Amino acid sequence: MRIGYKACFPARSALPVVLAASLGLSACVTPTAQRTSSWPDNIGRTIPAPTAPGPGQNPTPGASTAHTPTPLYSPPVAVAPPPKVLPAYPKSADEISSQAVLSLMKQARSARAAGQYDQASGALERAQRIEPRNYFVWSALGRVYLDKKLYDNAESVAMKSNSLARGNVYVELENWKVIAAARQAQGDAIGALQAQVKVDEIQRDLAGG
């Protein structure tokens, strides 16, 4: 039996043609570019607030660091001065005087209270001769001279008492009162004011302020 030529050699396969067509189509079609979203990535997310850098850290460039400005001037704090402490000065003639002087000073007080100023000054002058540096005697004599309107004598004796008292504010207070009154009685208003300033200063010291 004769086999035909076409039977022995079948027609060319169509596979190479299909492959070539497929390659040609793929070469004509360009790959689709990836779509990039034009929306920002932070939509729907919470952006943390910038924080100030810690100690030893450098701030991030462009970051906002909020801080409290340091004041350039701090007002001074008022501090009350400590109260002035006075030395333990004698407050009366009883602490430094002999019995004879104390007796004469007692006589002078009684005579002065009765308006007998000459007797009062006489008793104090005798006490003065016994204890010439007793500033309490000088101070009491200045008050009696003021009562007798011997203003120059009153101021002079009171100043002598101050010089002997050496800062004893209890005696100086009475002496400056005598000096202020004596100056005022003689029409020395400025001198009287100066003496009154001394009185006020001593009174403040005695009050602790």
TrEMBL record:
Gene3D superfamilies associated with the record: Tetratricopeptide repeat domain (1.25.40.10)
Biased composition (Polar residues): 59-68
PROSITE patterns reported in the protein's UniProt record: PROKAR_LIPOPROTEIN
Annotated region (Disordered), positions in chain: 34-73
Protein name: Uncharacterized protein
Signal peptide: 1-20
InterPro entries membership: TPR-like_helical_dom_sf
Top-level taxon in the UniProt lineage: Bacteria
Keywords: Signal
